[in-house]
Each structure stands twice: as structure tokens, then as C-alpha cells.
């Protein structure tokens, strides 16, 4: 191995820290520049090493926050502003289940519970109105409703019939998504632009997926039970069948979101990730110990979705259709 | 139209491309020459800047060549890039004129 080959190899290793799309576009070119300026050196200088590593870090960060010009965040939020309120309706399953029981039984016990359950019904009712307003492209009014609905999510745990911890757990994903939807309705081009990007057919597909998911959750033992009782106990008491139905409900919802958002575009994929936050939180809560401290629950519920979104959003992307080969240049390892 | 001020390396890279297209190593040498050896850019800084400037539409790839088996890509200043550089030059000139006027007044006042 000659000295220059060894130097090139060392530069290649440093360039390996760059985002993949950048390596594909500029890797050989940067190597050429580095070798041209290397003179008699046999290894990269400290200055070069730190400069290359900092450059790589800078480009990764730029991609994480989507500031590389490759993604239009306004379009991401426009899709979220249209589809988000519909996805949120998947969270109505427990309330619908309770309402159905109330209407069926007519028992005074159910009437008594109405006083403490009505806040939940009101909050989800607001989100139903937001979904209709969003579909009707009434962005500003929908935004006001979405902020109200998000604030409602904050207060219902204190009023509900379930334990505070359980309610926080069950509603966290919806509250996170509610806040993002409210922001999207307020600051993005809105549902009209979202409609242009995803189209009516996909909107209908999502509505179908949400409806199916709600029915499946109602057929299983419901979100509150799944999230508030250890899985082992639940499955021991009721078998694994209902847990599978609940998992299917989440899968149907996630698949509907991905299909509706348009998985072939970067904006669509990013929007799908945002819209899947409630599914992600539900999965996290399933594995989190029931006796976890509220701070741990909050850190997991809020921290993990945020980190996952940022990390997935920052994944390097291919600059060319296939392979790592540059036009006219050898492979950069 | 108002722009955020250009940082010195960015200003020097755009200046290096103002007269014609250059490849990466040429830009590095030119920046050093323009700044009279005060600013010595490294490849990592240069390509992070080119990545950002390309994204902003201020520079673009002009052509590619393979010299001695190595890829050489030439960059050029785009029209928006030239306008951005001209605006920065105009602003710096205005600042320089103001600074010169005030220094002149200070020195003339001091000797009076």
C-alpha cells in the first residue's frame, strides 16, 4: 500500500462520517481536493480532521432539522392540518364505547357517570368539529377549535373517572398530535394545500382506516384497559385474542396514515411520521412498567417520539436513484 | 430587499466565483489569495458552505471534469448569487463610507 493510498484511505474514513447523499454527490470531489492540498503529508492533519468531522456534524444537523432545502415543512404541515384531525378521531373509541353503553343500558349508574365523562365527550366533540371544519377548508376556525381541543386534553385527566396516571397515559399521544395539528392549522398553508397534495381518494382511505381502527378498539378491551393494566394480567384474564385485535387496530391506523399521507414523497413520509405519534406512544406505554414515576412516563411519552421524529427525519437520503457510484467516479466507501 | 449579513467565508467563496467558475481546490486557493492569507478554508468548511449555498440557489454546478482519474466539479455563481453578493458589497461600501466620514470628523476635530 503506497503512502498516497494510505492517505486517501484515511481521508475516506473521515468522509465516511458525512451524510450518504452528500458522500454520493461530493465524496470523490472532496477526496480530490483533500489530496491536492495534502502535499507530502501521509496522514490528515488535526485541523483537517476536526474540520471534516465538524463539517459532517453540521450537514447531519442541517438534515435533521430539514434545513437542507430538500423538504418543504409548510407542505408537511399542510398534510398534517388536513389529515391530523381525522387521525385524532381514532382516539374517540373509548368515549364512543362508553356512549354506546350509556344509550343501551339507560341505567342510572350510567347517567351518574355522565357528569364526570361529559368533559371527555366535549373534548372529542370539539375534535369532531375541527375535522369537519378542516375538511371544509375553514382553516382559521379549525385552528381555534384545535387549540381548544388541545387545552381540553390537558384538563380532562383531572376530571376523568379513570386514575390520573392512566388518563395521562391514554391521552398523551392524542394531546401531542393535537398540539401539532393546532400549530399546523395556524401556521401552514392549511387543509386546502393538503388536499392538493394528497387528494380526495387518500382522504377517504384514511377515514376508512380510522373508522376500522375505532371499531377494532371497541371490539378489544379498549385503550384504557390495555394501557392501565399490565399486559400479562390482561392476557391472563382475557386471553391474547383481544390484545391482537387492539394491535390490529393500531396497525390499521398506522397503515392508513402512511397510505393517505403519500409515502412516495419526503413531505408525505414526514407527515406520516408526525401523524403516527399516537400509535408510537401507545406502543411505548404498553411496554412501560405500570408503576413508573410520572416523570419517567412524561419523559418517555414526550421525549421518545420527539427523538424518533428527529432521527428519522435526519436519515441520509440517496442523491441518485441506485447504488453509491458517482457519475464518472469510483465508489466511495 | 434586506438580507441577513454574509459571514466572511461565505462572502469570500461568492467573491471567488464572481469572475468565473472554479473547482473546489481552486476556490480554497482563491479565498486564501483574496484574503491575503488571513482566511484559509478547509475542505469540510468549504463543502458545508457549498451545500448550503447550492440549497439557497446562490451557487450551482457548472461542469464536471476528470483530471488524472479524479473528479473535478466546477461551481459558478448564479444570478441570485451575484445579486446577493452585489447587495452585500453595496452594504459594506455604505458602512465603509460612514466609518470613513466619522473617522475623518474625529481626526479633524481632534486636530482643531
Strand content of the residues of chain A, in percent?
Answer: under 5%
The beta-strand count of chain B equals: 3
Bulk shape of chain B: elongated
Average pLDDT taken over every residue of chain A: 77
Helix and strand element order of chain A: HHHHHHHHHHHHHHH
Description:
The complex is a heterodimer of chains A (333) and B (112). With 333 residues, chain A is an all-alpha fold. Chain A is built from 15 helices and no strands. Chain A has helices spanning 3-15, 20-36, 46-64, 73-88, 93-105, 108-135, 139-159, 164-187, 191-219, 222-228, 231-238, 241-261, 266-275, 277-287, 294-313. In chain A, helix 7 (139-159) packs antiparallel against helix 8 (164-187) and helix 8 (164-187) crosses helix 10 (222-228). The radius of gyration of chain A is 25 Å and the shape is elongated. Chain B is of the alpha+beta class. Helix content of chain B is 61%, strand content 17%. In chain B, strands 1-3-2 form a three-stranded antiparallel sheet. In chain B, strand 2 (59-67) and strand 3 (70-77) form a beta hairpin. In chain B, helix 1 packs across helix 2. The radius of gyration of chain B is 18 Å and the shape is elongated. Chain B starts with 7 loop residues before the first helix and ends with a helix. The chains are: A mainly alpha (333), B alpha+beta (112). Chains A and B meet through helix 2 and helix 3 of A and helix 2, helix 3 and strand 3 of B.
Amino acid at each position: 500500500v503506497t503512502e498516497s493510498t494510505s492517505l486517501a484511505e484515511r481521508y475516506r474514513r473521515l468522509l465516511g462520517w458525512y451524510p450518504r447523499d452528500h458522500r454520493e454527490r461530493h465524496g470523490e470531489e472532496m477526496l480530490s481536493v483533500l489530496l491536492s492540498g495534502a502535499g507530502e503529508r501521509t496522514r490528515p492533519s488535526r485541523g483537517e480532521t476536526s474540520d471534516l468531522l465538524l463539517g459532517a456534524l453540521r450537514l447531519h444537523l442541517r438534515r435533521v432539522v430539514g434545513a437542507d432545502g430538500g423538504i418543504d415543512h409548510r407542505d408537511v404541515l399542510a398534510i398534517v392540518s388536513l389529515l391530523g384531525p381525522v387521525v385524532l378521531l381514532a382516539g374517540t373509541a373509548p368515549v364512543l364505547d362508553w356512549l354506546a353503553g350509556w344509550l343501551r343500558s339507560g341505567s342510572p349508574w350510567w347517567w351518574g357517570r355522565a357528569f364526570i365523562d361529559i368533559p371527555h365527550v366535549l373534548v372529542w366533540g370539539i375534535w369532531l368539529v375541527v375535522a369537519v371544519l378542516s375538511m371544509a377548508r375553514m382553516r382559521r376556525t379549525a385552528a381555534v377549535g384545535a387549540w381548544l381541543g388541545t387545552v381540553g386534553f390537558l384538563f380532562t385527566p383531572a376530571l376523568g373517572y379513570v386514575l390520573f396516571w392512566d388518563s395521562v397515559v391514554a391521552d398523551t399521544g392524542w394531546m401531542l398530535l393535537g398540539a401539532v395539528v393546532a400549530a399546523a392549522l395556524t401556521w401552514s398553508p392549511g387543509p386546502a394545500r393538503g388536499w392538493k397534495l394528497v387528494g380526495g381518494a387518500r382522504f377517504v382511505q384514511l377515514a376508512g382506516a380510522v373508522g376500522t381502527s375505532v371499531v377494532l378498539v371497541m371490539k378489544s378491551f379498549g385503550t384504557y384497559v390495555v394501557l392501565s393494566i399490565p399486559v400479562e394480567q390482561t392476557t391472563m384474564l382475557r386471553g391474547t385474542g383481544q390484545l391482537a385485535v387492539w394491535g390490529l387496530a393500531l396497525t390499521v391506523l398506522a397503515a392508513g396514515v402512511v397510505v393517505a399521507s403519500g409515502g412516495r414523497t419526503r413531505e408525505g413520509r414526514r407527515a406520516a411520521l408526525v401523524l403516527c405519534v399516537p400509535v408510537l406512544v401507545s406502543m411505548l406505554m404498553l411496554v412501560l412498567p405500570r408503576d413508573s414515576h410520572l416523570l419517567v412516563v412524561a419523559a418517555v411519552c414526550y421525549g421518545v417520539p420527539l427523538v424518533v421524529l428527529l432521527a428519522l427525519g435526519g436519515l441520509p437520503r440517496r442523491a441518485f436513484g441506485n447504488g453509491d457510484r458517482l457519475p464518472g467516479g469510483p465508489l466511495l466507501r | 430587499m434586506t438580507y441577513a449579513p454574509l459571514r466572511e467565508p461565505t462572502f469570500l467563496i461568492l467573491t471567488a466565483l464572481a469572475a468565473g467558475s472554479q473547482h473546489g481546490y481552486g476556490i480554497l486557493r482563491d479565498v486564501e489569495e483574496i484574503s491575503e492569507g488571513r482566511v484559509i478554508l478547509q475542505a469540510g468548511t468549504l463543502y458545508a458552505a457549498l451545500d448550503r449555498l447550492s440549497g439557497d440557489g446562490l451557487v450551482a454546478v457548472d461542469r464536471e471534469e476528470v483530471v488524472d482519474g479524479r473528479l473535478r466539479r466546477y461551481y459558478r455563481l448564479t444570478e441570485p448569487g451575484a445579486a446577493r453578493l452585489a447587495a452585500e458589497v453595496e452594504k459594506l461600501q455604505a458602512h465603509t463610507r460612514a466609518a470613513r466620514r466619522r473617522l475623518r470628523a474625529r481626526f479633524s476635530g481632534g486636530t482643531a
